[in-house]
Specification:
By secondary structure, the chain is an alpha+beta fold. The protein has two domains: 41 residues, Winged helix-like DNA-binding domain superfamily/Winged helix DNA-binding domain (Arc Repressor Mutant, subunit A), CATH 1.10.10.10; 82 residues, Lrp/AsnC effector binding domain/regulation of amino acid metabolism (RAM) domain (Alpha-Beta Plaits). It is 38% helix and 20% strand. It is built from five helices and four strands. Strands 2-3-1-4 form a four-stranded antiparallel beta sheet. β2 and β3 form a beta hairpin. α1 packs across α2 and α2 packs across α3. The longest helix has 13 residues. The chain is elongated and about 55 Å long.
């Protein structure tokens, strides 16, 4: 799907408010409702828009503790990475897992109820994985800008 200013504007508006009505979206981007709907449907069909989600207040659902965790592996083989990724995919505390370049292999976004529950995850889950060589935790104290959709 080609990118143009109107599609970019549609995507920007949907990232800001995924529940916006087609009528309001069309008005904001300067299209007729039918033309706007066709563009949104094409963005969905082509895979540019992969889904919609709710943005949650983590404190109200008991997940107020957030940490980014750097993970280094002791073996840099494909099988070691696959085993680690499979284990992490089963951990409900891990909301994001990114394979990165640099001195470590992964950055995780972990959300738990509190520090004791994070310690349990850190020790009993992450620290028990045989592929893990190093763990560095960065506890989030505040998020003055968070535009994840």
């Amino acid at each position: 799907m080609k990118s143009d200013k109107i599609n970019d504007h549609i995507l920007q508006e949907l990232q800001s408010d995924g529940r916006i009505s087609n009528l309001d979206l069309a008005d904001r981007v300067g299209l007729s409702p039918s033309a706007c709907l066709r563009r949104v449907q094409e963005l969905e069909r082509s895979g540019v828009i992969t889904g919609y989600r709710a943005v949650l207040d983590r404190t109200k659902i008991g997940k107020a503790f957030v940490a980014y965790v750097g993970v280094g592996l002791n073996d840099h083989s494909k099988s070691s990475q696959e085993a680690f990724e499979q284990a992490i995919s089963k951990a409900p505390e891990v909301l994001e897992c990114h394979n990165i370049t640099g001195t470590i292999e992964y950055i995780l976004r972990v959300e738990c109820a509190d520090l004791p529950s994070y310690k349990t995850f850190h020790t009993d889950m992450l620290g028990a994985l045989p592929q893990v060589n190093a763990i560095t935790s960065y506890v989030v104290m505040g998020s003055p800008k968070d535009e994840r959709g």
